[in-house]
Every structure is written in structure tokens, then in C-alpha cells.
């Protein structure tokens, strides 16, 4: 009962915050960041309860696809709310909060029945750094999409609507690369901890995840090198960001889904 009530709270307030933010961006209503932040805080609180109750198991964890996606989007929403105090990141909530609401419904509606046991501290460190890397880099993808919308509008001389509300292009781009940089720190830690604490990362059930994670790491590394050594920006940086994030998502969720379908 607590899980269902918390899920309802999370979904309602995620949608409320996203809609209010959209209306502010399209200049249909005046910006009221306090209202958006309050709705966001209630949504994150409800989502936190859902994450705790759906992941928790006796002496183990439910780590199915729906629970993991819910955990990642809980962290995304929490980081977005906290970072928006100092950084203009809340516009990304328009796209990310509805996905967070869907992740709540998925965790409640499609729970994982199996339980995973025997987590060592090293394995828990690997899981924690992986989830943080996913959260930060998906936030970077959301920022890249906003940046693409802003770039397209400016190229076609559309200076009204969302373009008037978003921060300057250089600020948006800087925020995207900051998220990528922090995400790369945790992705590197995740890969290193995986090699240190997980037996045989190139076993049949893990090889796709490992190879795709390493490929995403290489792509992000090239992107950061291009940014700081060659001054990459604009559409080129957006395409590299979105491409690398898609590969990273496939690394876990795509291969995990295929494995579950094959076992089913």
C-alpha cells in the first residue's frame, strides 16, 4: 500500500513539475521556479520510497530491468533538483521527468521476482558507480537534446519561445560537457571496479555489456579530447554525445533485456 501511494505521488508530481516547466519554457505562464522545485521534491521523495521498497529483499536485492531503470531515474531526478540550485539544468526536466514517472510505473507494475545475493563491497561499489555514471550521462543526453533544439532555432532565426527562456548557447554547452566529465569519472570507476571485483567480465552473459561499455567510454574520451584539444562544439558534439549515450544504454539495458527474453 505504501509503495502504491508513493508511486502515485511521484507520478503526479513529476508530471506537474514537467508540465509547469514546459509552460514556462513556452512562455505560456510566468516562470515560478519555486513551484517547480517543490513539485520536484515531492516527486523525488515518493520515488525514493518506491526505489527502497522495490529493490529491498531479504538478504539481497531485486535488480531486474524495471528496478534498475527506476533507480537510475530516481538519481537523475534527485541530481537535477540538487544541481538546479546553482546550475540552470531544470529545463531538462521537461523530458526527463516524464521518463522518471514511467520508470516508477514500470517498477511497480513489472517487479522482478528473482533476488540477487552475495554482494561484496567491491561489487556494491561497481553497482553504485555504474548507476551514477548512467544518471549523469543520461542527463547529458537530455542537455544535448535541448542544445540541439536551441541550435536549430537560432540557425533558422527563431528567437522567440523556448530560445528566449533557455540560458545562452555557450552556457548550455558548458553544462553538457560538465555532465559528461563527471559521468566519465564514474564510468571509469565502474569499468575499473568491474575488472577488479567481478569474475570474468568477458563471460558469455557479460561480454556484450563489457564491450559496449568500453566502446562508450572510448567515444566519450574522444569527445572530451575533441572538445578541449580541437574545440568541438555544436552539432558535432551533440551527435557524439547522443551516440555514446545510446551505446551505453544498450550496454546494460539492451543486453539485459535480450538475456531475459532468451531465458524466458
UniProtKB/TrEMBL annotation:
Pfam families: Cytochrom_C_asm
Cited InterPro entries: Cyt_c_assembly (IPR002541), YpjD/HemX (IPR052372)
Cytochrome c assembly protein domain: residues covered: 37-263
Signal peptide: none
Transmembrane segments: 61-82, 89-111, 131-154, 175-198, 210-228, 240-259
GO molecular function, one term: heme binding
Any GO BP: cytochrome complex assembly
A cellular component annotation (GO) from this entry: plasma membrane
Alphabetical UniProt keywords: Membrane, Transmembrane, Transmembrane helix
Keyword Transmembrane recorded: yes
UniProt xrefs under PANTHER family: INNER MEMBRANE PROTEIN YPJD (PTHR38034)
Name of the protein described by the UniProt record: Cytochrome C biogenesis protein
Source organism of the structure: Kushneria konosiri
Amino acid at each position: 500500500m505504501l509503495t502504491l501511494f508513493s508511486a502515485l505521488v511521484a507520478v503526479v508530481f513529476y508530471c506537474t513539475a514537467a508540465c509547469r516547466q514546459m509552460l514556462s519554457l513556452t512562455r505560456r505562464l510566468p516562470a515560478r521556479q519555486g513551484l517547480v522545485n517543490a513539485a520536484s521534491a515531492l516527486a523525488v521523495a515518493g520515488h525514493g520510497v518506491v526505489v527502497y521498497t522495490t529493490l529491498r529483499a531479504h538478504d539481497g536485492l531485486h535488480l531486474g530491468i524495471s528496478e534498475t531503470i527506476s533507480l537510475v531515474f530516481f538519481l537523475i531526478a534527485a541530481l537535477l533538483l540538487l544541481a538546479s540550485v546553482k546550475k540552470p539544468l531544470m529545463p531538462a526536466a521537461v523530458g526527463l521527468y516524464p521518463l522518471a514517472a514511467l520508470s516508477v510505473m514500470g517498477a511497480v507494475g513489472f517487479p522482478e521476482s528473482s533476488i540477487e545475493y552475495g554482494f561484496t563491497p567491491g561489487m556494491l561499489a561497481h553497482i553504485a558507480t555504474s548507476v551514477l555514471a548512467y544518471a549523469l550521462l543520461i542527463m547529458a543526453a537530455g542537455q544535448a537534446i535541448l542544445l540541439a533544439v536551441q541550435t536549430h532555432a537560432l540557425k533558422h532565426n527563431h528567437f522567440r519561445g523556448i530560445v528566449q527562456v533557455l540560458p545562452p548557447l555557450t552556457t548550455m554547452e558548458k553544462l553538457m560537457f560538465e555532465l559528461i566529465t563527471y559521468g566519465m569519472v564514474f564510468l571509469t570507476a565502474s569499468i575499473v571496479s568491474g575488472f577488479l571485483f567481478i569474475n570474468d567480465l568477458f563471460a558469455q552473459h557479460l561480454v556484450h555489456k563489457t564491450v559496449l561499455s568500453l566502446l562508450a567510454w572510448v567515444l566519450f574520451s574522444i569527445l572530451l579530447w575533441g572538445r578541449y584539444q580541437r574545440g568541438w562544439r555544436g552539432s558535432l558534439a551533440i551527435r557524439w554525445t547522443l551516440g555514446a549515450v545510446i551505446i551505453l544504454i544498450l550496454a546494460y539495458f539492451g543486453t539485459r533485456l535480450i538475456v531475459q527474453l532468451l531465458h524466458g
